[in-house]
Design a protein that fits this description.
Order of helices and strands: HHH
Oligomer: single chain
Largest sheet: none
Low-confidence stretches: none
Number of strands: 0
Helix content: over 70%
Strand content: under 5%
Mean pLDDT: 81
Structural class: mainly alpha
Distance between the termini: 52 Å
Length: 74
């Protein structure tokens, strides 16, 4: 069983170490159509909201979390 596992791990690692050419649908270069300012602002706002709003909510309710921990200990 171990040699089979070792061979499969070796083949997986070999393919990760020597990647082939990039898939044909991946292209580098400028966008085919320009991105508008509104699209850029909307994208940044979505990323900002998804990262910082949950953190702000947790920090805003941290006293409640502390009280809950104190009640569970008692």
């Amino acid at each position: 069983m171990m040699p089979l596992l070792a061979l499969s791990a070796r083949s997986l690692l070999r393919s990760a170490a020597r990647p082939g050419p990039a898939p044909r649908w991946i292209r580098s270069g400028p966008a085919q159509s320009p991105v508008s300012t509104g699209d850029t602002v909307l994208g940044f706002a979505a990323v900002f909201a998804s990262v910082f709003l949950p953190a702000a909510w947790v920090l805003g309710h941290i006293q409640e979390y502390k009280k809950r921990d104190e009640d569970e200990e008692a």
